[in-house]
Structures are given as structure tokens and as C-alpha cells.
Amino acid sequence: MKCTKEYRLSYTDKAKKIVEKMTLEEKVYLMSGKVSLKDLINDEANGNHYNYVPYPAGGNERLGVPEMKFCDGPRGAVQGNSTCFPVSMARGATFDTDLEERIGRVIGREIRAHGGNLFGGVCINLPYNPGWVEAKRLTARSLFT
After folding, report:
1. Is 22 helix (H, G, I), strand (E, B) or coil?
2. Residues 32, 25, 57: CA angle, nearest 5 degrees
3. What is the per-residue burial (b if ≥16 Cβ within 10 Å, else e) of 59-75?
4. How confident is the model over 127-137, as pLDDT tens digits?
5. pTM of the model as a whole
6. Distance of alpha carbon 39 from alpha carbon 103, whole angstroms
7. What is the pLDDT of residues 19-66, one digit of tens each?
């Protein structure tokens, strides 16, 4: 199934109806995570690296909205023993869209296998300065346009 713009926009009215039913506290709750700094420090002390398991955020049980379970990247899912792919800029330099599609499917399967549902590792941008620390993570057509 291709996810078209029309398909994605079909959820706008549904989302508006859910938000209209929310209290102010429920709306504010959606903007924060459920993992504290203390939790992160404890994970590190127990030998688990950053985002070893998906980080939960938001959700609304009363209205049937599932929480987001964040998985970071950008070289694939960082959870557990997931596959480490080359950075997106290196993959973009191949201009192989079929390869990128296959890598995306693997990343998606691994995220779901770890219980996640939101991948935060997609970085598509055109950095203004190639010395920018995040430039190495991004897919860009040209660093000097």
C-alpha cells in the first residue's frame, strides 16, 4: 500500500474530533514523555545504552489513543541488537531508491519487533554548512547549493 497525501489527510477530521474531546490537561500530557532523567541514568547504570527500549510518550487511554513508543536512529533502530546501516547521507549518495525502500522496511520490522511505533531517525535536510555536526546524518542532494 502506498501512503498517499489523500490517505494521510483522511485522518485530519478524526484527529480533530479526538482533540475536541480532550481536556486541557490531556492535551498538555501529549507533549511530554514518560521517561525521566532518573530512568535514563538507571538504564545506563544497568548496562543499557540510550533508547535500548522504545521510550513511551503521550497516548490517551480514555479516548483510545495509543502512546507513541519512540525509537531513535539514524542508522537503523538503536534498540537491542538491531542492524546498523550506513548513515542516510551515504545511502542517499547511491541514488538507489530501491535499496532505501528495503532498508526502510527492515528498520520498520525491527522497530515493531522491539515494541516501537515511531522512528525518529529519518533526517532529510539540506544543511547550509557542511561543518554542521548533524550534517553527517542527513540525506542531501548537495551540501553546497
Report:
1. coil
2. 25
3. bbeeeebebbbbbbbbb
4. 666 666 666 55
5. 0.72
6. 31
7. 999 999 999 998 888 888 999 899 899 998 888 899 999 999 999 999
